[in-house]
Amino acid sequence: MSTPVAKQQIVETPAEKAVYRKVTLRLLPFLMICYLFAYLDRTNIGFAKLQMQQEMPFLTEAVFGLGAGIFFLAYACLEIPSNMLMHRIGARKTITRIMLLWGLVSAAMLFVSNEVTFYIIRALLGIFEAGFAPGIILFFTYWFPAKRMGRVVGLFAMAGPLGSILGSSTSGLIIELTHNAWGLSGWQWMFLIQGLPAVLLGALFWFLIPDNPLQAKWLNADEKKLITTKLEETKERHHDSKFTDALKNPAVYVMALAYFGIMCGIYAVSFWLPTILHNGGLTNNITLGFATALPYLLVLPVLWFLTKGSDRTGDRFWRSLIPTVVGALALVVAAYASSIFALSYIALCIAVCGVWAAYTIFWAVPTTTLGGTAAAGGIAFINTFGILGGFVAPTIMGFVQDATGSAQGGLMTMVVLLVISAVAIIILPKVMKKPM
Predict the structure, then answer these.
(1) Domain assignment present for 115
(2) Beta-carbon neighbour count of residue 89 at 10 Å?
(3) Residue 208: which residues within 8 A CB-CB, separation 6 or more?
(4) pTM above 0.85?
(5) CB–CB of 334/411 below 8 Å?
(6) Residue 404's domain is classified under what CATH number?
(7) For residue range 204-239, what is the model confidence (pLDDT) as tens digits?
(8) Number of structural domains the chain divides into
(9) Contact 49, 401 (CB under 8 A)
(10) Looking at the domain assignment, is residue 304 inside a domain?
């Protein structure tokens, strides 16, 4: 399914390596911090849930699942318009607006008092954050050539697990240490403390991140020319294709299907891991937090190893297919070994590594396949369809948990969706009519 390694090796001059090292160090750390808080602010409700349910009886498993998922439904509706607008007006205006608004709304989760306000604020969070992740991925195509996208997206994607590590390790502490301070519950303080940093980061984005290499004051003329030349080579291969060209491409729909299942796996674990571990006997918030953080800590070296190797060999097929299958098998073990805590926990750790690795390698495919306006719309379309997994997964998990009292049925549904993703990855090279 992949071309021979010798034909896929990246050959770069010392000057090229130096320029992209400089660009990476200038952009990636800050953008990773932004994505870290984006991921944290959309998933920290999984930790708040346990205390919120004690104080608000209306928050059943089904209500929680639907509310967690509504974020993604609202998000999906505005992704394509946001990315198309960003392609016209630039990243600074788009991402700054997104981060300022989502930070304020995330902090406003502390005002949830009933089912209606829970749904409304979650929907507003999705509306205001819409376009952030696909916008950053599109932004990378303005700076990096196709052959570097696996490594770049891989580094950026590490912020997701890092967000889970930060959220898992701090959410429990915040809830425990701030409960009833100034009349607010611990979960209210958690949303406030974890939401406001996005506002500051949004303001910093405006001043620190240029829209494209030509606007970067920290690049000299030769460095700008080198980057522009590499980008022109990619642009020539895609002939500045339009959004309608992306919609006519069958591979875009297969990519969207593959991404959908992977995202279901990611968000099923993200939202329900604290609950699963709590049901397994970890009732202390601080212990629960660190136990939830460990799987995401293990993800980091896995992502680094796989993405570096993927760019070196050019293989996107096996390095996205195998983690998807491994993630599905691990969820099967976790579902049926729930009575054996150690085995179930190890399986969940493996599942987290699998789905995150699949997610990371996957994004190197559309970013190197699409170009021009097709990249803006096509990436947003794939992400829009995939992000619906964030609605489907928690909604299914919640209703199944309420109906059966167990997460087993919900986890097995996620397994089926991951298998569908694996099948889509298998047929994708044939639809693309070229190796992955």
Answers:
(1) yes
(2) 11
(3) 30
(4) no
(5) yes
(6) 1.20.1250.20
(7) 999 999 999 999 999 999 999 999 988 877 665 545
(8) 1
(9) no
(10) yes
